[in-house]
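Troubleshooting log. The previous structure file for this entry was overwritten by mistake, so regenerating from the original sequence record. Sequence copied from the archived sheet and checked twice against the printout by T.R.
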Amino acid sequence: MTKDPITNIILTRYCNSVNIQASINDVALDFMELPGVPRDGKQVVEGVRVLTHEHARLMAELLAKTLDKNNKILDSSE
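Regenerated output below.
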């Protein structure tokens, strides 16, 4: 048996919008698909919520590193 976990993505959601709310205790990142879908006479926007300061911090660091790496690759190809 391997010590490293194997990723098994069981759900992929398309998201084209994010709403960020922060308080002293929590950060809520709501990734949503706009404009939503009509349901029972209302426009329903489905999404995924990521919580906690730690998760938000880790996500921000990973996004910054990934974008920086991709920008360096793009810059070197010009």
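The longest helix spans residues 53-77. Archived copy saved in two places this time.
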